[in-house]
Amino acid sequence: MSKLHSIKSIQHENDHIIISFVNDWYQEDIKTLNPLILSTVEGYQIKEHTLGADRETIRFTWQTTEFLLNFDYYSQSCWIDAHDVKSQTSMLTLYRQIKIYV
Known about the structure:
Elements: E1 7-13, E2 16-21, H1 30-38, E3 45-51, E4 55-62, E5 65-72, E6 77-82, H2 85-88, H3 91-99
Antiparallel strand pairs: 1-2, 2-6, 3-4, 4-5, 5-6
């Protein structure tokens, strides 16, 4: 896998997980970046994939909770939000699961 598709860092800040990549990426790279992140989350299931002009959001479930994996091409941002209050309580556990593989 090229360095373009490598995770540089992952941080847990307040109620988000922020992911940055080694190099800048394009919106068409999201189809490669998405599985790079989610492959670290054992047992996830994609529920919805929303495509926008410069943003994509993947709603997924993991351990009976729901999260939103967001990509914003123009700001080069990638982050995970909890879908609801119940999921917020699992955010730190999800972060630790992803962080193991980075």
